[in-house]
Amino acid sequence: MVDWPRVAVVGPGAVGSFFGGMLARAGAPVAFVGRPGSTNPHLESVRTRGLAFDGVAIQETIPIEVAEPSEALEGAELVLFGVKTPDTESAAEGIRPHLAPGAVVLSLQNGIDNVERMRTVGVEAIAAVVIVAAAIETPGTLRHRGRGDLVIGDPERPEEARWISELFERAGVPCEVSDAIRRELWFKLIINSMANATSALTRASYRRLTEFEPTWRIALAVAREAVAVARVEGIELDPEELIARGAAIIQGVGEATSSTEQDIARGRHTEIDALNGYIARRGAELDVPTPTNEILWALVKLREER
Questions:
Q1: Which of 31, 41, 191, 271 could serve as 139's disulfide partner, Cβ 3.0–4.6 Å?
Q2: What is the rounded distance in angstroms from the CA atom of residue 89 to the CA atom of residue 110?
Q3: CATH homologous superfamily of domain 182-305?
Q4: At 39, phi and psi to the nearest 5?
Q5: pLDDT in tens, 106-160
Q6: Assigned architecture for domain 7-179
């Protein structure tokens, strides 16, 4: 019998549901955090019927607790933090009073600076790079279409990073510990920015974006601009290696559409400010031209307003 720590999932959307579901399936006591008074259809379905996991190799229903923050976070040793990037500070501030002493918070978010933003409201977290194609297509059902692995790291908390990695590996989730997590975060940011906005604007799958030469040329321009910005920030990335790895990852998630496309389809605000928008802002601050990223950011923002 393997002992598992108690796990709480803050922001149990597609990413939080996938990784929380994998830990729960392996035997960890997992609770999804629901806001007091909220009537979230996904959480209500999980509460009454469990999480229906419709995966590449897994099709089963996983019982998972759903509770308010004070109850779900009580005694939780690991907190998976998966809220949308615009909600980072408010969500972190909301959970801070309920965190157990010694609890480890793992940020599963898109973007570069979420850990720093959480620190401003008194929550220390470890950064993770998430690679998974998943979506909540109907309440209570997680559709998993590809990948499902993590890269984590914190140079000041290596033992905690190794502990988290071992937990996920035991649950069947590949989890690498990196001593260059900032570089890995930039890599993931660029891969997301290559495909997310274009998928949202065209409703095309990741695979289609790579197969259609004009949209792939846009992706290449996004990557080269972002590599130039990262270089000025002191992060060296080989553009050809990045493009090759990025193409493999994007093709590997196949027929899925981007999270940005899913947000727009559901009438929600996207994370585009933390993707192409972040690259464009940093480029402007560092005097590095990023016209392709700025155009994609502007077009997605216009779609949000509509």
A1: 41
A2: 14
A3: N-(1-d-carboxylethyl)-l-norvaline Dehydrogenase; domain 2 (1.10.1040.10)
A4: -120, 60
A5: 999 999 999 999 999 999 999 999 989 898 989 999 999 888 999 999 999 999 9
A6: 3-Layer(aba) Sandwich (3.40)
